[in-house]
Request: fold
Amino acid sequence: MAITHIWVDADACPRVIKEILFRAAQRVGVPLTLVANQPLQVPRSPHIRTVRVAAGFDVADAHIVQQATAGELVITADIPLAAEVIARGCLALNPRGELYNEDNIRQRLNMRDFMDSLRSSGVDTGGPAAFGQADRQAFANQLDRLLAG
Reply:
């Protein structure tokens, strides 16, 4: 299945991942839309555009859910957003190269909720590991596989 559009939950997306996406959009000619609640700088390209949404909790996520359709790819580290777009027939890839799907998203949601409840009860759960070269490479490799279709 060929990817027809790439949506990016851009507020928290690492810059290096955006740069990989810019090059990929140019290379294969797939439309790339970055959604954020702040202005973004992107290369001039007929394939790349930005959508600025109002500030607020999950406003960018809601926009992506409303716009994305089956067969499109959504780049996000937001587990609930990934679950919503997967339910709509989209693919979801996180910036570390993990492809979410119907088989693993429920487990990710459960783990996210569990960690949330630990944090709300005062347990310091730490944060994600620092974003590194291996993550960047895993993302680029998975994106290439998806775009090769």
Observations:
- Residues 14 and 95 are 7 Å apart (CA to CA).
